[in-house]
Amino acid sequence: MGYPQSHEPAAPTPIKIVVAGGFGVGKTTTVGVISDTPPLTTEAAMTDVAAHVDRTGDVPDKTTTTVAIDFGTIRLDQGLKLYLFGTPGQDRFGFMWHDICVGALGALVIVDTRRLDDCYPAVDYFEQARIPFVIAVNLFHGRLAHSLEEVRWALAVNGDTPLTTFDARSRQSVRDALLTVCRHALQRATAAA
Amino acid sequence: MTEADGAGRRLPPYMRHADASRPLPDDPGAQAYLDADDAPRLRPYQMTGGRTAPVDPTLALEAQVVADGAVIAAPHALRFEHREVVNLAHDPVSVAELGALLHLHLQVVRVLVADLAAAGHLRVLRPQRAAATDPAMIERVIRGLSAIA
Ligand SMILES: Nc1nc2c(ncn2[C@@H]2O[C@H](COP(=O)(O)OP(=O)(O)O)[C@@H](O)[C@H]2O)c(=O)[nH]1
Ligand SMILES: [Mg+2]
């Protein structure tokens, strides 16, 4: 046909960090404030849609729940792109949870101290999946309702899980929280090597 | 010829074709249907019904796909929804981005990607799992993040 065979642009190496926590804790804000591009939302279904489509005419039942996943990207260097995925971590989304998190460098679990138990499912998941995670208390009102040690006790996370406070609306603060995730992951990776 | 979905709505012909490599005639009617403001959102099973290429249900959200040069030059040979994917994949693009930009469920994107890859129109670059636990790679991420002002 004589079409010029355009040379294929190199794809960046993708690295992923998951941002988890209950509804309203600041996940969307966090992803949006640090992303290079306006944050986007993609949808995942709780049920496996692909399993349905192979059976012609089979209509997924109406209770199929769609979960919105926020995502943003940060170009870290020429060949490296960080993907941030923000998702409500809830027990009943187990299937999708794994789908999003597999292969993640680490996770930021955002906590609102007024509703601590909202983050239990996320903490449980990352512990079981052995994904390095950091608890980040979003300082909605500029101060803590409980001390960080009280938070650690209430969440029953072990001593080497980092706990930090941050402000989801501040780019520098989100950057620092993500750096805490990376340093924790690095410590794990170095210990395992 | 007329087929209808469960709600009695007619299905345009492009929804009934399964083979990604088989071109559909450019159907202005179908295009108008999709462009119409009141067009209902296509449900996943309508867009992907009767397909045969194996889908990788674990294809990562951050996996990159990139369209083949030949198909970029001649996208009109493709079904509408495949064409949309190709149009976004001239440069490498993530599965998550495709889902967001096309307003499609992640699982539907995986199906479309599988179709196009099977037909040789798209290359799929799976992320290397080991990268996330490689100290040198994590240090590189730290350097990149630290540079953010
Ligand atoms: N005052 C204050 N408001 C915040 C902060 N983080 C998020 N918000 C607000 O809290 C609401 C919920 O945040 P959002 O990011 O949508 O939470 P999500 O449900 O976890 O995605 C929004 O109205 C945000 O503007 C914060 O650090 N301080
Ligand atoms: Mg949100």
UniProtKB/TrEMBL annotation, chain A:
Keyword Oxidoreductase: no
UniProt xrefs under InterPro entries: Gliding_Motility_GTPase, Gpn, P-loop_NTPase
Keywords on record: ATP-binding, GTP-binding, Hydrolase, Nucleotide-binding
Keyword Membrane: no
GO molecular function: ATP binding; GTP binding; hydrolase activity
SUPFAM superfamilies from the UniProt entry: P-loop containing nucleoside triphosphate hydrolases
Family assignment from sequence similarity: Belongs to the GPN-loop GTPase family.
PANTHER family: ATP/GTP-BINDING PROTEIN-RELATED (PTHR42708), GLIDING MOTILITY PROTEIN MGLA (PTHR42708:SF1)
Protein name: ATP-binding protein
UniProtKB/TrEMBL annotation, chain B:
Pfam families, alphabetized: DUF742
Region (Disordered): 1-54
InterPro entries xref list: DUF742 (IPR007995)
Protein name: DUF742 domain-containing protein
